[in-house]
Every structure is written in structure tokens, then in C-alpha cells.
């Protein structure tokens, strides 16, 4: 399963993480801001997807839209999953 992270077009500091489950034909998403609480929300979202669906097969795809995470150290839990 892939989790795509992209910038929300109408906002400078807001991002969306989206995961699609083909079996359920359903998508799951979280919208978060580029701050410490937003990164915690992203971490919780990824942990939820991993715990419920294919925990060993989750990859995070960051779209190339000048996404600058405020503190990359906050992404340490996700580091091995980012492509």
C-alpha cells in the first residue's frame, strides 16, 4: 500500500496524506499542517494504516512540490518507509 503526501493547493502550509485500499475500493486520508502537531498526526495516520492493512508493505511517496517539512527529525519513525 502506498501513502502519497502532497501539498494542499490552496494553502502554503497544509498537506494531505492519502492511502487507497483496492480491495475495499476505499481511500483514507489525513490533512495536516507543517508543524509538530501535524507531523504527529501524520505519524499516527501511518501507524494506523500499518496496523490495519499490510504493515510490512507500506511505502510513503512524497510528491515533488517543494515540500519542506518543518522538522525532518520528527519523521524518524517513518524514515525507512519514505521513497
List the helices and strands and how they pair.
Layout: E1 2-7, E2 14-21, E3 26-33, H1 36-52, E4 59-62
Report on this model:
With 83 residues, the protein is of the alpha+beta class. The protein is built from 1 helix and 4 strands; from the N terminus they run E-E-E-H-E. The protein has one helix at 36-52, and strands at residues 2-7, 14-21, 26-33, 59-62. A 4-stranded mixed beta sheet has the order 3-2-1-4, with helices on one face. Strand 2 and strand 3 (26-33) form a beta hairpin. The chain is globular. The two termini are 13 Å apart. 13% of the residues are buried.
Q: Flag low-confidence runs.
A: none
Termini separation comes to 13 Å
Largest sheet: 4 strands, mixed
Task: Give me the secondary-structure category.
Answer: alpha+beta
Q: Which value, in Å, is the CA radius of gyration?
A: 12 Å
The backbone outline, from C-alpha atoms, is globular
Mean pLDDT: 81
Strands, count? 4
Brief overview:
With about 80 residues, the protein is α+β, with helices and mostly antiparallel strands. It contains one helix and four strands, in the order βββαβ. The model has no long low-confidence stretch (mean pLDDT about 80).
Highlighted features:
single chain, 83 residues, alpha+beta, four-stranded mixed β-sheet, globular
Amino acid at each position: 500500500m502506498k501513502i502519497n503526501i502532497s501539498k494542499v493547493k490552496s494553502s502554503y502550509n497544509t498537506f494531505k496524506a492519502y492511502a487507497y485500499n483496492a480491495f475495499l475500493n476505499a481511500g483514507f486520508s489525513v490533512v495536516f499542517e507543517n508543524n509538530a502537531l501535524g507531523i504527529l498526526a501524520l505519524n499516527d495516520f501511518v501507524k494506523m494504516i500499518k496496523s490495519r492493512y499490510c504493515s510490512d508493505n507500506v511505502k510513503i511517496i512524497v510528491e515533488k512540490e517543494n515540500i519542506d517539512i518543518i522538522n525532518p527529525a520528527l519523521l524518524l519513525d517513518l524514515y525507512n518507509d519514505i521513497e
